[in-house]
């Protein structure tokens, strides 16, 4: 099985290499702004009735860049051509997203027209797709025009795959986050077919704010609440940044310190999410999650920060590719499936269940259970309820039956096929 997988490492560049990396990032930003100005100029000319071509594709923008780069950027030879190509590629993607959003062909909220990039604002990165891109040894990598750069952490995991011939580097993306430089290698990796530890088991996952996830087995995964625990420190360092003169040495130092704290919050959150999703995908044969409307939930101003800190949609995104890697099946419940309001024992549905009620009490059968565990149990039974096969049918396949079920999903028809397809 060949999959696309990224390996990310922290860099330890020399001062000269750090200046070169910053120059490549600036070159990417310059190409993006130059292309956006050209597109706006041509669009205004078309609006006036002039017969001009609007460079809307990457090939058209590259032709225009090669025709004008000697005039608009006489210093273009100082950086790799991939830096300028990366900026134009980012512009093309932004234009396509805006166009598809206007036509209703893009999911999610409306995307506005691209805006000019400003130094120090947004993500600073540059992508290399050609040239000298390789992992030299376990402590060095080679990048185009940058040369041999030292790595802060060993690259053994990727190096072994490359030496064994099971991985091939497609591109490298260099980015600066929290005052540090990182490189991310996008690789085509050959992975052996995976198999979960318990392929015959079905688990329901109820993701939330109080707990990161509650499983139908009764297991509770705690929420690290990375942002909430660092809010006081963030507020303190934000005030310290506001007291500095913008652009001064103290201001830059305070800004790097604040960025490092934001990076730490992100790393704590990502670590908890990756550990949870890896455990689920490598342990259970079928994982059932809720398809939540996170964008709509974030409109609640009282819960928005806690919901964003929990990153509920990220759990589902990671499970999509990790389940495929480990041979598990991911099932997503319908958006309005009443997992919290339904009794996991008798199936009775409550008309309403406020968030303040953390214990589910069924008036029909007298079940008293934690509301999150009750929701997780309902999600676990969703497979049997919709597919029309209970636990006895699944167990009758034997312990080797679950992988066969995954392979047979595309050929099956009826409710089972609709369920697995989501």
Task: Write up this protein.
With 422 residues, the chain is an alpha+beta fold. The protein has three domains: 2-14 and 125-190, no CATH class; 27-121, no CATH class; 198-222 and 261-388, Nucleotidyltransferase, domain 5. Helix content is 46%, strand content 19%. The chain has 14 helices and 14 strands. Strands 10-9-8-11-12 form a five-stranded mixed sheet. A four-stranded antiparallel sheet has the order 1-7-6-2. β9 (211-215) and β10 (220-222) form a beta hairpin. The longest helix has 35 residues, at 249-283. The protein is globular and about 80 Å long. It starts with a strand and ends with a helix. 29% of the residues are buried. Mean pLDDT is 86; it is low at 387-422.
With strands numbered from the N-terminus, the spatial order across the biggest sheet is: 10-9-8-11-12
| Average predicted confidence as pLDDT | 86
Structural class category: alpha+beta
Order of SSEs, N→C? EHHHEEEEHEEEEEHHHEHHHEEEHHHH
The CATH architecture of the largest domain: 2-Layer Sandwich
Radius of gyration: 26 Å
**CATH class label of the largest domain:** Alpha Beta
Low-confidence stretches: 387-422
Q: Tell me the CATH topology of the largest domain.
A: Nucleotidyltransferase, domain 5
The tally of beta strands, per DSSP, is 14
How many domains? The number is: 3
Q: What portion of residues is helical?
A: 40-55%
Tell me the overall shape.
globular
Q: How can the largest sheet be summarized? A: 5 strands, mixed
**Strand percentage:** 15-25%
Total number of helical segments?
14
Report how far apart the termini are: 23 Å
Q: Please give the oligomerization state of what you see.
A: single chain
Keywords: DNA recombination, DNA-binding, Metal-binding, Transposition, Zinc
Domain Probable transposase IS891/IS1136/IS1341: 185-300
GO biological process, one term: DNA recombination
Family: In the C-terminal section; belongs to the transposase 35 family. In the N-terminal section; belongs to the transposase 2 family.
């Amino acid at each position: 099985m060949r999959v696309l997988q990224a390996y990310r490492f922290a860099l330890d560049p020399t001062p000269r290499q750090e200046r070169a990396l910053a120059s490549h990032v600036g070159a990417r930003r310059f190409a993006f702004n130059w292309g956006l100005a050209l597109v706006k100029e041509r669009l205004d000319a078309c609006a006036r009735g002039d017969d001009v071509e609007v460079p809307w594709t990457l090939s058209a923008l590259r032709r225009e860049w090669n025709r004008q780069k000697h005039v608009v950027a006489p210093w273009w030879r100082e950086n790799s051509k991939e830096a300028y190509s990366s900026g134009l590629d980012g512009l093309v993607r932004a234009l396509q997203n805006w166009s598809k959003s206007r036509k209703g062909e893009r999911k999610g909220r409306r995307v506005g027209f691209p805006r000019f990039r400003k130094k120090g604002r947004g993500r600073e990165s540059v992508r290399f797709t050609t040239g000298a891109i390789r992992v030299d040894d376990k402590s060095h990598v080679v990048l185009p025009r940058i040369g041999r750069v030292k790595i802060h952490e060993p690259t053994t995991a990727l190096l072994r795959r490359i030496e064994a011939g099971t991985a091939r580097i497609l591109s490298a993306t260099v980015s600066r986050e929290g005052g540090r430089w990182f490189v991310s290698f996008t690789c085509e990796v050959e992975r052996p077919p995976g198999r979960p530890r318990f392929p015959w088991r079905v688990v329901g996952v109820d993701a939330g704010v109080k707990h990161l996830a509650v499983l139908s087995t009764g297991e509770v995964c705690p929420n690290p609440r990375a942002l909430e625990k660092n809010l006081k420190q963030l507020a303190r360092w934000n005030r310290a940044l506001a007291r500095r003169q913008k652009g001064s040495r103290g201001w830059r130092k305070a800004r790097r310190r604040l960025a490092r704290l934001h990076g730490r919050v992100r790393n704590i959150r990502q670590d908890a999410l990756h550990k949870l999703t890896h455990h689920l995908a490598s342990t259970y044969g079928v994982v059932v999650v809720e398809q939540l409307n996170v964008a709509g939930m974030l409109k609640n101003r009282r819960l928005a920060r806690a919901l964003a800190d929990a990153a509920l949609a990220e759990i589902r995104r990671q499970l999509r590719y990790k389940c495929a890697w480990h041979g598990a099946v991911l099932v997503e419940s319908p958006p309005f499936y009443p997992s919290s309001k339904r009794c996991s024992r008798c199936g009775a549905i409550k008309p309403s269940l406020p968030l303040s009620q953390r214990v589910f009490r069924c008036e029909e059968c007298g079940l008293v259970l934690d509301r999150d565990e009750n929701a997780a149990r309902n999600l676990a039974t969703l497979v049997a309820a919709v597919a029309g096969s209970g636990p006895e049918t699944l167990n009758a396949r034997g312990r080797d039956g679950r992988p066969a079920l995954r392979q047979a999903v595309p050929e099956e028809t009826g409710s089972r096929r609709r369920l697995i397809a989501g």
